[in-house]
Amino acid sequence: MKKARALAVCLLLAAPAALPPVALAQQPGMVIAFLDKNGDGKCDLNEYLTYHVGRIAEFDKDADGELNLGEFRESLQGRSKQNANVIFKTSNAEGGRTLSQKEFLGYQAFVFKQYIDLDHDGFMSPEEWQKLMGAL
Ligand SMILES: [Ca+2]
Ligand SMILES: [Ca+2]
Ligand SMILES: [Ca+2]
């Protein structure tokens, strides 16, 4: 089980460079397994946000712990990238020139509830992930 998990993580991390996004979208079970920290076979909101906490460091180029508009734009995909200005403004609840971790996760929680968990059972299913990838 552990071994399979490690392999899935390797594949997922290698995927963006090695494979086009559509290939990643074809492995939704693997994505859920990667995000599923408590091992219940499902990805809940907390697990989804835990993943996004790690992504902040990935896009935080000036390493101030927060995302400015340019950094935030890089973290978005597909159509949301074009709407980065609007999303940034909407998410920037505390004001200032950057999104704090709390504000960034607030946005991701909104995405999870509005666009990912379509049947509102509190979990992202492989099917819901696949739909999200198709929508981008
Ligand atoms: Ca879980
Ligand atoms: Ca920053
Ligand atoms: Ca769901």
Describe this structure in words.
66% of the residues lie in helices and 6% in strands. It is mostly helical and 136 residues long. The chain has a single domain, classed as EF-hand (Recoverin, domain 1). The strands form two sheets. Strands 1-4 form a two-stranded antiparallel ribbon. A two-stranded antiparallel sheet has the order 2-3. The protein is globular, with a radius of gyration of 15 Å. One calcium ion is lined by residues 117, 119, 121, 123-125, 128.
Q: Bin the strand percentage.
A: 5-15%
Top-tier CATH class: Mainly Alpha
How many helices? The count is 9
- The CATH superfamily label reads EF-hand
- CATH fold type: Recoverin, domain 1
Q: What is the molecular shape?
A: globular
Encode the helix/strand succession as letters: HHHEHEHHHEHEH
Please identify, by name, the CATH architecture.
Answer: Orthogonal Bundle
Number of strands: 4
Residue-averaged pLDDT, rounded?
85
Distance between the termini: 31 Å
Helix/strand class? mainly alpha
Ligand inventory: calcium ion
State the helicity in percent bands: 55-70%
Domain count: the total is 1
Computed Rg? 15 Å
The low-confidence runs, each spanning 5 or more residues with pLDDT under 50, are: 6-20
Largest sheet: 2 strands, antiparallel
> Largest beta sheet: what is the strand line-up?
1-4
SSE topology:
Blueprint: H1 2-18, H2 21-25, H3 28-35, E1 43-44, H4 45-59, E2 67-68, H5 69-75, H6 79-82, H7 84-91, E3 98-99, H8 101-116, E4 123-124, H9 126-135
Antiparallel strand pairs: 1-4, 2-3
Helix pairs in contact: 1-3, 3-9, 4-8
